[in-house]
Specification:
- The protein has 160 residues and is of the alpha+beta class.
- It folds into two domains: 4-115, no CATH class; 117-153.
- The chain is built from six helices and five strands.
- The chain has a five-stranded antiparallel sheet with strand order 1-3-2-4-5.
- The chain is elongated.
Length: 160
């Protein structure tokens, strides 16, 4: 078994000139294609669809048909929960890799720094920091008074 890549032009082969890798991967998995899809890479105008093995001529025809009717609509929130893949469609100039249901985003062409970080990523980061702070605070509250009294008796002014 050798991984096989099928490359399509986003601006030529896809009807709306846009690809939603999560939706497209879902469409491939729901189709009659027998060979398992491995991942979808988009970069500039190329959409590379990787399969774990070579497709039969019939499966290639099905894949060509899926490309021809792919709308580029992103997955909706309930589909993301059920399917667990990328939400945002990719337009030429961005790069997104969906491999084993885990998206990885590569942002190019001037979008850097704080603007490249999505709001949900920030929300997860702030929640995680708050959760760790809460755990640390609870650990301090549960500290036994004996060691603190011993430090104070030994002359540690910050212990009391």
């Amino acid at each position: 078994m050798a991984a096989t890549k099928y490359t399509y032009s986003i601006s030529v082969d896809f009807p709306n000139h846009i690809v939603s890798p999560g939706r497209f991967l879902q469409e491939i998995e729901a189709s009659a294609i027998v060979t398992a899809a491995d991942c979808i890479n988009t970069n500039d105008d190329d959409c590379d669809v990787w399969f774990v093995d070579v497709l039969s001529p019939g499966d290639e025809a099905i894949l060509d048909g899926l490309v021809a009717v792919h709308s580029g609509d992103p997955l909706r929130a309930w589909e993301l929960i059920a399917y667990g893949s990328a939400a945002e469609p990719v337009v030429p100039g961005a790069s997104l890799v969906v491999a084993n249901d885990r998206p990885a985003i590569e942002v190019e062409d001037g979008i850097t720094g704080f603007a490249a970080v999505r709001g949900d990523t920030l929300a997860i980061a702030f929640r995680s920091i708050g959760f760790v702070g809460k755990l640390f605070g609870e650990a301090l509250e549960e500290a036994q008074p004996g060691p603190v009294e011993a430090l104070t008796a030994a002359g540690a002014p910050w212990a009391g």
